[in-house]
Design a protein that fits this description.
- The protein has about 200 residues and is an alpha/beta fold.
- It is built from eight helices and nine strands.
- The chain has one domain: P-loop containing nucleotide triphosphate hydrolases (Rossmann fold, 3-Layer(aba) Sandwich).
- Helix content is about 45%, strand content about 20%.
- A five-stranded parallel sheet has the order 2-7-1-8-9, sandwiched between helices. It has a four-stranded mixed sheet with strand order 4-3-6-5.
- Strand 5 and strand 6 form a beta hairpin.
- Helix 5 runs antiparallel to helix 6.
Length: about 200
Amino acid sequence: MAEKGLLIVLSGPSGAGKSTVISSLMRMRDDIRFSVSATTRAPRPGEVDGVNYFFRTHEEFARMIGEGAFLEHAEYVGNRYGTPAGPVDEQLAQGWNVLLDIEVQGAAQVLEKRHDAVSIFLAPPSLRELERRLRGRGTDAEEKILGRLETAKRECALAKNYAYIVVNDDAETAARELDAIITAERCRSGRKLESIAKGDFLS
């Protein structure tokens, strides 16, 4: 039987570089899977149900909430988004480490339900650098940039609630730190003793 995987909760403000760091991490490890979120929004061209999202109607989503089927859920711009627990638990049981790239409110919901989750906050080296990155995108209006910076300040103030903080000054270095955290967590005595007790620690 495969050793149960880790549930990894990763948060960080817009502009912290999560996508780049995650891409680097995925090149380093072949034991990580992304969780697939459910949403009530319509599929965009090329999106596939069960791959990009689980596309559900508002009625189906409400029923899932009532059944306690989500690790977390929220509403954004008239649509609902959530992380179904079932597919996550299936992958964990198969030994995959499951990564949730999720904002701080959703992360708090997950951590309240899953005390064994590994929480990591990816922070920019400074607000000045974050502002430089946001402006460097060249895609947002001034008002939106200022709004993102204010949100980032609030999110960074919650970094103390996470087990680990990784500062993304360099994406490759940050990815190596994430890799080290995952390896260390998988080597925790509690996890290994559970395998030993089952007698399958040499499998």
